[in-house]
Amino acid sequence: MGVPVPRDAIKDDDDMCEVWASNWSALTAFLAVETQWRIITSGAGAAIWLGLDYAAVDVALKRRGFDDDAFIAVQEMERAALDVFARAG
Prior knowledge:
Blueprint: H1 21-32, E1 37-41, E2 47-52, H2 54-63, H3 68-88
Antiparallel strand pairs: 1-2
Helix pairs in contact: 1-3
C-alpha cells in the first residue's frame, strides 16, 4: 500500500515485517475493516476506489471493541491507501 518499510524490518525467510507496538491497534483496526471498501468498476474492469463505507466500518470496529482513536487511525490509513490507489490507476 505504499508504506515504506525499512530493509532491516523484513526477514529474508518469510513475508513478515515488524510493526511498532504504538501502531499495532491502528493496524489491526484497519485490517478488521479491509473488506469494507467502496469501489466502482468500469466496463473494462478498471477499479475506482472511493473510500471505506463508514457505516460498516463503525459497526465492525465497535463489535471488535475498538475506540474512537482507532477510527481516526483507520481514516488516516484510508487516505494514504487512496493516494496509492490513485497513483497505481
